[in-house]
Write a sequence for this structure.
């Protein structure tokens, strides 16, 4: 990003602290239930890895890959299932984990898509909620941070398939 500098919006320390808090709530809410964490690839793999290690009840973890942005900063509006859930989730309490709810199109689609597998319940947990951009009616059951209408990168979120490895959430500003 020539001529630009990173503007850190949420630090690695803030992320870690908030995930600890949310993991406690989830551990309490799902005590005695058949918790199945469904991580939406690719964006959520870092958040999922940190979250599940702070959850202190038994948990199954699986993955599903969806795509609607490609290399763009705006949603195509059409969600592609790149890789379906591999386990039989019938009777499980499914918690979909994703990095961000933006337009909400991905999360709404996945929630509806999973119904056919007859889970006991379906809820969702996201690191970031960007409510100003919402196009469909959905709100996350668990969320770490609410952010303004800014295209953010890092901690799993990509720009042109790069920068997912940055340990914080940032955007770019003019130097
Ligand atoms: O609320 P929405 O507007 O639907 O946006 C949210 C989705 O967009 C990103 O995925 P993307 O399609 O970029 O794929 P990726 O996870 O591989 O980065 C992100 O990881 C969410 O899944
Ligand atoms: N990297 C990135 N991907 C997204 N997908 C939906 N919103 C965003 C965003 O703000 N940043």
């Amino acid at each position: 990003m020539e001529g630009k500098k990173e503007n850190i919006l949420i630090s690695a320390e803030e992320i870690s602290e908030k995930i600890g808090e949310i993991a406690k709530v989830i551990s309490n809410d799902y005590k005695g239930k058949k918790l199945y964490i469904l991580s939406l690839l690719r964006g959520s793999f870092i958040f999922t890895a940190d979250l599940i290690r702070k959850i202190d009840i038994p948990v199954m973890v699986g993955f599903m890959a969806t795509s609607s942005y490609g290399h763009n900063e705006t949603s195509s509006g059409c969600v592609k299932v790149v890789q379906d859930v591999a386990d039989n989730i019938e009777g499980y309490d499914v918690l979909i984990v994703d990095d961000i709810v933006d337009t909400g199109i991905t999360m709404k689609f996945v929630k509806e898509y999973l119904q056919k597998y007859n889970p006991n319940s379906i809820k969702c947990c996201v690191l970031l909620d960007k409510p100003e951009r919402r196009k469909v009616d959905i709100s996350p059951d668990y969320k770490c941070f609410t952010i303004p209408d800014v295209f953010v990168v890092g901690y799993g979120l990509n720009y042109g398939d790069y920068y997912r490895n940055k340990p914080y959430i940032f955007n770019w500003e003019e130097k």
Observations:
- The radius of gyration is 16 Å.
- The domain at 12-68+80-148 is CATH 3.40.50.2020 (Rossmann fold).
